[in-house]
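Per your request, structure below.
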C-alpha cells in the first residue's frame, strides 16, 4: 500500500470516521483511505477517529471519537513526556497482536516474503524489570536542575531542559531501580558536564552489582571533573565507572566496569562479561530465546564456518562455537572487542573463534569467501552496501537479526537481488510495552 496521499479524495474523507488499522514499522498509527496509507500519530490500533484532510489529501487534523477496545490506562505517571514505553496504553494482548501484524505487513512487502515459513511469535514472558541498562541525562537548563530520561519528541519543547525527572521505571531491573533516584539526585548536584550516564546491571535478580559509563560534553576534560565523577560513583553505589570523551573514547576507569550474565548466558565457560560502554541485548529474559533462534537457523556444527558481523562481545559468537562451528567475527567497538576477546579466552573453545576489530559494513567482504553462514546483527540503520558484501563474500546462507522493520525491508530487498531467497522468519519481542520487535530472517542461496 503506497504511503502517500496524492490520490485521496478530500471530499470523501474529510470529517469521516475511520478505524486505525495498525502501526507502521516505526510505530506510528495509520488508516487507509482509497487504498492509500495515511499516518495519524498519537493513536492506537482499533481507535475510531475523525480525520480532516487538507490540500493534497494530507491529514491536517484528527480526533479520537471512540477508543480501541484494547486501550488501557497507563500504569506509569511519566507516560507521554517519557517516550520509552510508547504502547503503554495498549493492552499486552493488543501489543502482541499488533507486533505480529507489523511483522506480517513487513514480510508482505519483501519479494517472496509471504512464502517464507513464519515461526511462532516469541512474546516476552516478563513485561517489567527486563531492561539491564538505563541512560540518564543532565538538564541543559541551569534554572531547572533536573536529571532523568530525554523527553519524547512530542514533549521535547514543553519540558524544561528537555529531560523528564523520572523517579521510578517499571522496565529496568530491580538493581537499577534501586539506584535511579540516587543517581538523579547526584546529577542534579554536580556541575552540568555530562552528555549522558549509562547504568548497567547483571542479568541476575540476586545480584546488586551495577556499573556505569559516563560520556563527557565536548571540551570537558576528565581531570577537571575527577571529584564529581567520584561523587557520582559513590552516590549511585556503582562498582565501576568508565569515562569517555564526547567522541566515545574511554579516558578513565574507576573500579571494575564489568557485569555478567548479559552475554551468551546459557553457554558453558561463563559467566561472560559485558560493559556499559557498548551495546548488549535489552531483555534479560528474551536474550536466551533470541540466541536459541539464531543457533537454530545457523545450524552450527563441526566443520561449519560462520562469518559474523556486528558481533559485540560474543553473545551469538560463543553460542555458535559451543556447538562446534568455527566462527570468524568482526566488531567495531573497541570495548566490545576487548571484552569479547576476554570472553573467548575464558570459553574453552578459543581455538575455533576469531574476533577482530573493524567496521563490519566495510570489512566483511575481506573475509575468506564462501562461508557456510553469514550472520549479521546490524544496528537500526541496517547494513548499507550489503549487496556489494554478498557479491564478494558469497555465503551459502545468511541469518539476519533485524531490530528495525524498515531496515529489514530495505536490506532484504538487496539480499534477494543478490540471488538469495527469504525462507524463514521469526519474530521475538525484546522490548515489551514498546513498538519495537526483532525479526530474525534466514536467506538461502538460489
Amino acid at each position: 500500500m503506497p504511503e502517500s496521499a496524492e490520490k485521496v479524495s478530500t471530499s470523501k474523507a474529510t470529517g469521516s470516521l475511520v478505524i486505525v488499522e495498525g502501526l507502521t514499522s516505526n510505530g506510528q498509527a495509520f488508516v487507509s483511505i482509497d487504498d492509500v496509507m495515511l499516518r495519524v500519530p498519537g493513536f492506537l490500533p482499533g481507535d475510531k477517529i475523525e480525520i480532516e484532510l487538507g490540500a493534497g489529501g494530507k491529514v491536517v487534523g484528527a480526533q479520537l471519537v471512540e477508543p480501541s477496545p484494547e486501550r488501557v490506562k497507563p500504569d506509569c505517571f511519566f507516560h507521554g513526556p517519557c517516550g520509552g514505553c510508547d504502547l503503554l496504553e495498549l493492552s499486552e494482548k493488543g501489543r502482541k497482536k499488533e507486533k505480529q501484524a507489523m511483522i506480517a505487513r513487513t514480510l508482505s512487502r519483501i519479494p517472496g516474503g509471504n512464502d517464507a515459513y513464519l515461526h511462532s511469535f516469541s512474546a516476552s514472558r516478563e513485561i517489567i524489570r527486563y531492561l539491564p541498562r538505563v541512560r540518564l541525562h543532565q538538564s541543559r537548563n541551569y534554572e531547572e536542575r533536573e536529571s532523568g530520561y530525554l523527553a519524547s519528541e512530542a514533549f521535547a519543547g514543553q519540558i524544561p531542559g528537555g529531560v523528564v525527572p523520572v523517579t521510578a521505571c517499571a522496565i529496568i531491573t530491580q538493581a537499577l531501580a534501586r539506584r535511579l533516584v540516587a543517581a538523579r539526585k547526584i546529577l542534579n548536584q554536580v556541575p552540568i558536564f555530562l552528555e549522558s550516564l549509562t547504568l548497567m546491571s547483571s542479568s541476575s535478580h540476586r545480584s546488586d552489582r551495577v556499573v556505569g559509563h559516563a560520556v563527557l560534553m565536548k571540551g570537558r576534560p576528565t581531570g577537571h571533573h575527577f571529584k564529581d565523577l567520584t561523587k557520582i560513583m559513590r552516590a549511585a553505589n556503582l562498582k565501576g565507572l568508565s569515562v569517555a570523551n564526547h567522541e566515545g573514547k574511554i579516558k578513565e576507569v574507576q573500579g571494575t566496569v564489568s557485569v555478567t550474565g548479559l552475554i551468551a548466558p546459557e553457554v558453558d565457560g561463563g559467566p561472560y562479561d559485558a560493559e556499559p560502554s557498548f551495546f548488549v541485548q535489552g531483555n534479560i529474559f528474551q536474550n536466551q530465546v533470541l540466541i536459541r533462534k539464531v543457533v537454530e537457523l545457523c545450524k552450527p556444527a563441526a566443520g561449519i564456518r560462520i562469518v559474523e558481523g556486528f558481533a559485540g562481545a560474543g553473545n551469538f559468537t560463543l553460542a555458535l562455537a559451543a556447538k562446534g562451528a568455527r566462527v570468524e567475527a568482526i566488531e567495531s567497538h573497541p570495548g566490545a572487542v576487548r571484552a569479547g576477546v576476554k570472553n573467548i579466552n575464558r570459553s574453552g573453545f578459543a581455538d575455533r573463534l576469531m574476533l577482530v576489530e573493524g567496521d563490519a559494513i566495510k570489512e566483511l567482504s575481506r573475509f575468506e569467501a564462501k562461508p557456510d553462514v553469514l550472520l549479521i546483527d546490524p544496528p537500526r540503520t541496517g547494513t548499507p552496501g550489503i549487496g556489494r558484501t554478498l557479491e564478494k563474500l558469497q555465503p551459502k546462507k545468511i541469518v539476519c537479526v533485524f531490530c528495525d522493520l524498515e531496515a529489514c525491508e530495505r536490506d532484504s530487498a538487496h539480499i534477494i537481488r543478490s540471488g538469495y531467497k527469504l525462507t524463514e522468519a521469526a519474530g521475538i519481542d525484546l522490548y515489551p510495552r514498546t513498538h519495537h520487535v526483532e525479526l530474525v530472517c534466514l536467506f538461502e542461496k538460489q
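The chain is about 25% helix and 25% strand.

Regards,
D.
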